[in-house]
Design brief:
Blueprint (H helix, E strand, L loop, with lengths): L1 E2 L1 E3 L2 E3 L4 E5 L6 E6 L3 H20 L2 H17 L1 H12 L3 H24 L3 E2 L12 E8 L2 E5 L7 H12 L3 E5 L5 H12 L9 E3 L4 H9 L5 E5 L2 H10 L4 E5 L4 E5 L5 H13 L9 E7 L3 H13 L19 H16 L3 E2 L5 E2 L2 E2 L2 E4 L6 H4 L6 E7 L2 H9 L3 E2 L1 E5 L3 H10 L4 E4 L15 E2 L2 E2 L4 H7 L1 E8 L1
Parallel strand pairs: 1-5, 8-9, 8-11, 9-10, 11-12, 13-14, 13-21, 14-19, 18-19, 21-22
Antiparallel strand pairs: 2-3, 4-5, 6-7, 7-25, 12-24, 15-18, 16-17, 20-23
Helix pairs in contact: 1-7, 2-4, 3-4, 3-6, 4-5, 5-15, 9-10
């Protein structure tokens, strides 16, 4: 099936197509229209015109629109889940979970918008003020450009489209080249809904040329991007005066305290390090373990990791499928080989067959090794021995990233210190930093980005406050 262009509500086909091959089988699983800079500009101009009507639309219509998409997602759950697995190799069980999460994200956006409101201001609270009727309201920002990655090709699109559209904006979406058909099928549900606002959503495909045209144009008011730090830097330097929301990389870490439940910690850490083959911004990459329980935890971590099934993403019991491409697999192997050369030890046999990369637990890792300094984005986790939490804090914080951290402890004082002293956008206690609920504010500090996602917080990013005074 072809992923076609949406110029607003009008479907179009380009003369040329790019093929998407399955990262598991190598078979062609989808084709996408190849778009040009001119196509991107056309989509923006359509969105600009449509924004006038979108702003006039009622909240009731927009909420019904999103709820209708939720109903269609439920009806098409298996087809969309299969498409995710085809295009990015995500194990089918987790693709189905992603569809369920997407439904929640869209529904939450509708429910949240129903309760978003302004408030009155007491202008006579200051000696220099006077009694008036004063308040502020929220209005749609206008045109939103949404650029999304491959690792959650449905739900991360939802985290941009649903808040933007329910707030009364129009959107031009540029999905990841790795999963064009997933985005196309999702967008089609919005566009063909009986509640749709005409031309409110456009979809174009491409890489740097198309993305550059979208972000440098004067038409968008908001750029919402999830992806790599280098691309985030380019957007920041070239976007101009716009609202820019960036959800970038991470190097998630956890601390295992001597007081922790080691069975729970090992089980959850194996999940957090290797789910989606480690291709998650908040994938657990660094585990700082108290020296007193280091050996016991390492053994339990290896035992839990052995239980994970690596294989065909189409099998229900598969936990790890293929990495997204050959370069990702080669880069992962280079990380491991480098660490071994520097003195680290794999706790399990290394197995690497093309894009199929078995989970790797590296012990005796030091802070100066490259494997813990950069974002790996592969099924590799490192164990680092520390004296105590005082020793762990500066080492966890010593990263250019700050997305999510966690600690496993039954010590209340460590819990309190973790919340105040760990430098990240999110802190999790007694679970993995990979834990995310779609209703929460999600985003990082430092190179992990600016702004927050989650329906309420994305709506705030994608609206403008208008202040009103009636004297």
């Amino acid at each position: 099936m072809d992923a076609k262009i949406f110029f607003g509500s009008t479907e179009a086909i380009s003369e040329n197509f790019s093929e998407r091959k399955s990262p598991y089988s190598g078979d062609v699983v989808s084709r996408a229209c190849i778009c040009s800079e001119e196509d991107a500009i056309m989509a923006l101009n359509i969105a600009k015109e449509a924004a006038k009507e979108a702003k006039k639309s009622t909240l009731s219509q927009r909420c019904n629109w999103l709820l209708d998409v939720c109903a269609k997602l439920r009806e098409n759950k298996e087809d969309i889940a299969q498409t995710i697995t085809d295009e990015v190799g995500k194990p089918i069980t987790f693709s189905r979970i992603e569809v369920d999460r997407c439904i929640e994200t869209v529904r939450l956006s509708a429910e949240t918008m129903r309760t978003m409101h302004g408030e009155t201001i007491n202008t006579d609270a200051m000696a220099s003020g006077k009694k008036t009727t004063a308040f502020f309201t929220r209005e749609p920002a206008g045109v939103v450009v949404a650029i999304t990655p491959f690792n959650f090709p449905l739900n991360l699109v939802a985290h941009k489209l649903a808040p933007a559209l329910v707030a009364g904006n129009t959107v031009v979406l540029k999905p990841t080249p790795e999963a064009p058909l997933t985005a196309y099928k999702f967008a089609k549900l919005f566009i063909e809904s009986e509640y749709a606002i005409k031309d409110a959503l456009s979809v174009v495909y491409g890489d740097a040329e198309v993305g550059g045209a979208l972000i440098t144009s004067d038409i968008p008011r908001v750029i919402s991007f999830t992806g790599s730090v280098p691309v985030g830097n380019i957007i920041t330097k070239n976007a101009g005066i716009k609202k820019v929301s960036l959800e970038l990389g991470g190097n998630a870490a956890t601390y295992i305290d001597a007081s922790a439940d080691l069975d729970l910690a090992a089980s959850r850490c194996a999940f957090g390090a290797f789910v989606n083959s480690g291709q998650v911004c908040i994938s657990l990459q660094r585990i700082y373990v108290n020296v007193d329980i280091y050996d016991a935890f390492a053994l339990k971590m290896a035992e839990q990791t052995k239980k994970l099934v690596v294989g065909s993403p189409y099998e229900d019991d598969t936990f790890l499928g293929p990495l997204i491409d050959d370069e990702s697999a080669s880069r992962a192997m280079r990380w491991v080989e480098s660490a071994i050369t520097e003195g680290a030890k794999p706790l399990l046999p290394l197995q690497h067959d093309g894009r199929m990369f078995n989970p790797c637990v590296m012990a005796d890792v030091r802070d100066d090794m490259a494997i813990v300094c950069e974002e790996v984005f592969a099924p590799i986790v490192s164990l680092v021995k520390v004296d105590n939490f005082d020793d762990a804090i500066p080492r966890m914080n010593n990263s250019p990233y700050g997305l999510q951290f966690s600690v496993f402890t039954n010590d209340l004082k460590i819990t309190q210190r973790a919340i105040s002293e760990l430098d990240a956008g999110g802190i999790v206690i007694n679970d993995i930093p990979t834990l995310r609920f779609d209703i929460q504010p999600y985003g990082g500090v430092k190179l992990s980005g600016v702004g927050r996602e989650g329906p309420k917080f994305a709506i705030e990013e994608m609206t403008e406050i208008k202040s009103v005074i009636i004297c």
